[in-house]
Amino acid sequence: MNLFEYFLLMLKSSLLSTGGFGPLPILHEDFIARGWATEQSFTEALAVGQTSPGPNGLWVVSFGYLTAGLPGALLATVGLLLPPFLVLFVQRLYQRIGGHLLTRGFLDGMALAIGGAGIVVFGRLLLANGLQAALDWRSLVILAGGLLLTQFNKLPVVVVIGLGALAGIVLYS
Amino acid sequence: MDTTTLSQNKIAPAPTARRLFQHWFRIGAQSFGGGVATQFLIHKTFVRDTDWLSDDEFLSLFAMCQIVPGINLFALAILIGRKLGGGPGIAASLAGFLLPSVSITVLMTALYANFKDSPIMRAALRGMTPVVVALGLAMCWRLAKPVLLALPRRKLFPTAFAMVLMGLCLAVMAVLNVSPFAVYIGAGALAALAAWWVHRRARQHARVTQEVA
């Protein structure tokens, strides 16, 4: 694994997307193709990263640690940190382009695309998470429960993931 | 931003870089529970508790962060740091925000990696996988919902167009081996075009009805 290329891929995923899980489809494509990550490492990173404090996007740091140890976590952090600085540039232009029809249309289209791409990637995580017989009735029951729990906005994510872990221990061991 | 506008806008005396660091450190260490919890804490810290920003200022900074790539809350930390303390304010805010949240994330991952091969952890992960997927799908929905349902504030094109576009992105991602970024850009361009077309037609329509009247 070439750490410079590793960093560039991290930077690319965050530079070419927006929001906490925006980098997921791009990282998924690049890292799976190079054999630098398994489907399982994505699930693990998302579970840990969503439980830890800070923005949701920190799951990428967790992913960095799982794929390349401490250097990976560090490079992931720098890769996440640089693109938001573009906001200083946007701030100057905002009056002119912020409310423009084309800007809003473009952002709306991108939101739809990230949503659609996300559904595909999350579907793949469910089907092939690197563990044997990933999809069975138990995982479907837990998925249904999880979807139900996400309807309660007040419920912290930590609790939802914790309940999932508990359900896994009860149903699978 | 120069100092004169800064002193006109601010409500309370601006904090030192050190205090900025402390406040962001507290946010970074306490915000268990994801982005919404973090956003809530940021608002509470800088608007409600300290009066360093007005509600309007906070909202306008927040809106700018929505059109920036990467983690929106990092962009927000940069903007708030700059507004309250210039360059040193940016450095203090980011350092304070990242230090605890990144360290805790790394620690938790290391802890997890240590125990991941135990049977209990493996069972737990099998349970967490569908839950992570559920949370992810909910995020996809939250992202696309305002556009899909053509909520009045965002109404640029009809729901049917949004549904077809999202379905198209989903199908392309599932079947073809294309870069997600290409899909994002393509969808963005199509949607911008649609917004422009809908707007133009509405204007033409208005002109025609005016002439008829």
Which helices and strands, and how do they pair?
The complex is a heterodimer of chains A (173) and B (213).
Chain A: H1 3-15, H2 23-34, H3 39-51, H4 59-81, H5 87-97, H6 101-127, H7 137-149, H8 157-172
Helix pairs in contact in A: 1-2, 1-4, 3-4, 7-8
Chain B: H1 3-9, H2 17-30, H3 34-49, H4 55-65, H5 72-115, H6 119-148, H7 159-175, H8 180-212
Helix pairs in contact in B: 2-3, 2-5, 4-5, 7-8
Keywords:
heterodimer; A: 173 residues; 8 helices; globular; B: 213 residues; mainly alpha; 81% helix
If you had to describe this structure to a student in words, what would you say it looks like?
The complex is a heterodimer of chains A (about 170) and B (about 210). Chain A is mostly helical. Chain A has one domain. Helix content of chain A is about 75%, strand content about 0%. Chain A has eight helices and no strands. In chain A, helix 1 runs antiparallel to helix 2, helix 1 crosses helix 4 and helix 3 crosses helix 4. Chain B has about 210 residues and is mainly α. Chain B has three domains: about 110 residues, no CATH class; about 25 residues; about 60 residues, no CATH class. Chain B is built from eight helices and no strands. The radius of gyration of chain B is 23 Å and the shape is flat. The relative contact order of chain B is 0.07. The N terminus of chain B is likely disordered. Chains A and B meet through helix 2, helix 3, helix 4, helix 5 and helix 6 of A and helix 2, helix 3, helix 4, helix 5 and helix 6 of B.
